[in-house]
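Researcher: Let's try something more involved. This one mixes different molecule types, so please make sure each is placed in the same coordinate frame as the others.
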Amino acid sequence: MPVRFLPNDAQHEAQSGETILQVAERAGIPIERVCGGRGTCGKCRVVVVEGELSPLTSSERSSLSPEQLSAGYRLACQARVTSSEDVLLRIPAESQVEPVRILSSGTSDVAPQDPWVTRHHLQVPPAGLADQTADLDAVLAVWRSRYSDPLRLDLSALRQLPAALREEDGRITLIKARDRVIDVRAGHATTPLMGIAFDIGTTTVVGFLMDLETGEELAVASELNPQTKHGDNVIARIEYAESQAGLESLQAEIVGALNRIIDATTKAEGCAREDVLAATVVGNTTMQHLLLGISPVHLARSPYVPVYTTAQCVAAKDLKLGCHPEACIWLLPNIAGWVGADTVAVLLATGIYLDAEPALAIDIGTNGEMAMGSRERLIACSTAAGPAFEGAHISCGMRASSGAIEQVWVDDEVHWRAIADAPARGVCGSGLVDAISELLRVGVIDNQGRMGNPEALAARGLRHLAHRLQGENRHRVFHLTGSDDSENGSLVSLTQRDVRELQLAKGAVRAGIEIMMKELGLHAEDIRKVYLAGAFGNYIQPSSALGIGLLPSFPNAQLLPVGNAAGSGARQALLSYRACEIASELPSRVEYLELSGRPDFQEEFVEAMLF
Amino acid sequence: MPVRFLPNDAQHEAQSGETILQVAERAGIPIERVCGGRGTCGKCRVVVVEGELSPLTSSERSSLSPEQLSAGYRLACQARVTSSEDVLLRIPAESQVEPVRILSSGTSDVAPQDPWVTRHHLQVPPAGLADQTADLDAVLAVWRSRYSDPLRLDLSALRQLPAALREEDGRITLIKARDRVIDVRAGHATTPLMGIAFDIGTTTVVGFLMDLETGEELAVASELNPQTKHGDNVIARIEYAESQAGLESLQAEIVGALNRIIDATTKAEGCAREDVLAATVVGNTTMQHLLLGISPVHLARSPYVPVYTTAQCVAAKDLKLGCHPEACIWLLPNIAGWVGADTVAVLLATGIYLDAEPALAIDIGTNGEMAMGSRERLIACSTAAGPAFEGAHISCGMRASSGAIEQVWVDDEVHWRAIADAPARGVCGSGLVDAISELLRVGVIDNQGRMGNPEALAARGLRHLAHRLQGENRHRVFHLTGSDDSENGSLVSLTQRDVRELQLAKGAVRAGIEIMMKELGLHAEDIRKVYLAGAFGNYIQPSSALGIGLLPSFPNAQLLPVGNAAGSGARQALLSYRACEIASELPSRVEYLELSGRPDFQEEFVEAMLF
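Model: All components are placed in one shared frame. Result:
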């Protein structure tokens, strides 16, 4: 069932039972919230323009004013898709916060008035017997009379030139990317200038079709990274790329995904694939290597070096991308083997490199990449967080789809909410982090991560929780759902091993944060901003992240969920030459910290695994 | 039957009856001669090392000393291939004149010690956890420590880099063309560096396989330009290129020919096609456009402008050339629509741009291109000479193959010699120019080109020639062979129309020369050197060219037959970066003279048609 969002009016498919926040996140449309989608902050307001959503929840009744309620205001984290009707929503300015705020909190130079794909109308005078100027020279002469920047016409442009020049008496349109002409058209054409910003995640690939002139986002499409069939993590992909045939399949698979996204977004917008004249690509270093067909095998072997880190510019035809064959595909630079172009894009989008006071940017996907510092000094590192935060490698873990327990709170009993209010089938990342945070708070799990035994719990008066604990020691299990739950769902439990899995993941991230603070000589109270990107909000509630100690408490920091900041950075680079220049320079301004090379990492890691 | 020439030892197919000079010319091996192959100058000496040739002629007995004769010396213009045995010939230094002399008479900067395809052995230090330099950056660091010139590794090189770097502990070999790395190999490889210089003529395509390190010519191959099936002249090709499909066929055909030449030469040398790392291409402007797939249609329409004139550098894979896919294919620049890269190559090879005193360079192929001047000022023009000088468009005309009358001299009777001493089948270019030159001399043809009537000839005592004239006025015919000729060949005749055809051709060339002299304020006696390239020597005897007035008498000039000077220029550019730079600049130093735009051209042309 289709959901459309104003002001962009792009259409997105939603499943019945999904919250509007989930639909928007998946589509890469950032909506402000602070509570991580628990219905408590009241920030994620949307206005229903057409269609029906699920009934108002009590959270909405308490967060929204009577005037707002009668005007159709809802909270995106509470309102769910219910019918097969079209739903049209408006995201009010106050809720559109992230990309807009990020764009403007970055630098005022990073603005869509600084495009690098441009259209130029020229009037080229005809040649005569007394002046037999070659077509190319005639065009360059007119160009130089109007512009000071260089212009280059390669073979493909030279092939188009003679016919275009004569069809409308010397009136032509040049479309160029930086200094290279990528298309020559007869007459003063006004065909659209489109571009796509790709965010290639280990798990998910997203593409944002953008109007390069207005900066408007026209359509979004995403799909599972088809390389996941060779393994859900980066190391598995690298192993598969050991053989030339494996490397070629991985490349063909990701190119296939990008092509389907080009098809889907251009079809949604009703334009031609050839109208896509530029693309930017972000992704971790391995994803970038694989797209280019460059072997990433040495990223998995000490000393973990990439083949290249600098930004790369490739013609679409050289990657067999199905947009304009001469389109300029610009891959943002990487910082190091395990801190890739996605992190560069996060830095670009958050503007952390401009911050006067210390900040942390943390992007949790399948891996966790982090940067800390300010405009004076920035350091970055990567931790092998693993996919636990996405619900993987967990006994009852599942992706955030219908029936996944996504919220857990414990008072005198265990309460939970599953996506789409469906019968519980498993637990997704946010439910896992919530559950462990709550069980820690009430003492079912101790600060070493051990689940208590039922007798001890009963002795502390927690008899109502004690009966949910079963098994001994390493095989201990805590049932989130029980026979008294009326929904007839599966029995969803947390095992002692699940807790250990989460401890490893959060320990890795937390140790990274601690070492970065140590490296910079900072304490938690010095950090003024924490940019939460990636899984935060979608898979992890920031409050629970604090609860399990994934993040230090940061008493003086603003927590800023920034959604898909990597995607935002890719969009900025697509729209602005200045943003490309900044991105190109960022790797030289960021010090990479190789955690495995630090003698203190193991110590911090063990410490950080404690709750 | 195979003929091989030392010192290069390349093998060439010859037909029985061909002179060694013809075989050598076709193979692009220049052999000195001044008389145009009439057996009178004694310059075209070759030494038979193995095999048998036709018996000694009286010319050879008079030109060569008894010592030379006993040492196996022959004259290349006299000795013919007769048997099916292998023939191995040595070209002694004094006969190897042209390319050597031209190379050295050019500029001493243009020398093989200035290559633009080079091999570099690097030792790249390994990365460590404390220094996780990307492969690319590690290579660039070593490069910069040794060289000051820039280095660029594109996608293909980046793909090769990680494996090559680790196979032999950081020892790698880079092969680069200018600043671009085209191959990365493991270890300190010494695989050969080969290149091919292509000369694409409207009729014939020649390729010279060169060792880029020694400058040695390794093999030569040629074939008929397969585009001739669409017409034997440039205009016919341009018309065929009107449709996109026609343009694509013409491009595919010439690429096919170049690929067969790559195959033949590399096979002859026993090396791999991938060892060919660079190529230079010369040819007229239309041939250059067609190779690049750029429409030449506006070259045939006033004001005759090309799409581009500047030098172009293209990767082999982009033209589907079957050498190393990243090989740099460098097309020499053109001067104008009808003065192409072949003329630039002639200027480069002759060094006319360095001459202190006025010189003329004239290259007659299917068209006639000429340049005149000195280092102070150079002008160039093109004349539509048409293919008459190659025997085409002539009633009994034929290519220079067995049975073609190639020499004619008239005393009290008409004498002729056919190629391979075979029965006469027709007349080739040199025979035609000889015949008309001789008939002019004895008065069978008057200075307006009219064949006299038999009665008038008989009255002047030329009864023995009078009986060879038949028909009236426009239908008058002069029989070169007659019933009293013992060879039982065809009756080979010149018609009044043949004479007119030749007058048009020579008139166009001569008018061009006259207008260039006028433009430069020179007279025939000011010209000090005349570089005769292309058909001269092969299809036109310089002495007969003077006889028919194709050239002014140039009383103070040295006549320098320079063979395939366009091919020599292409070889120089292949071997020397400095030569490429000079070639790139030449078009800006040469003024193009559009003859059709000159009001005095028709007048000069009518004048120049007279003998």
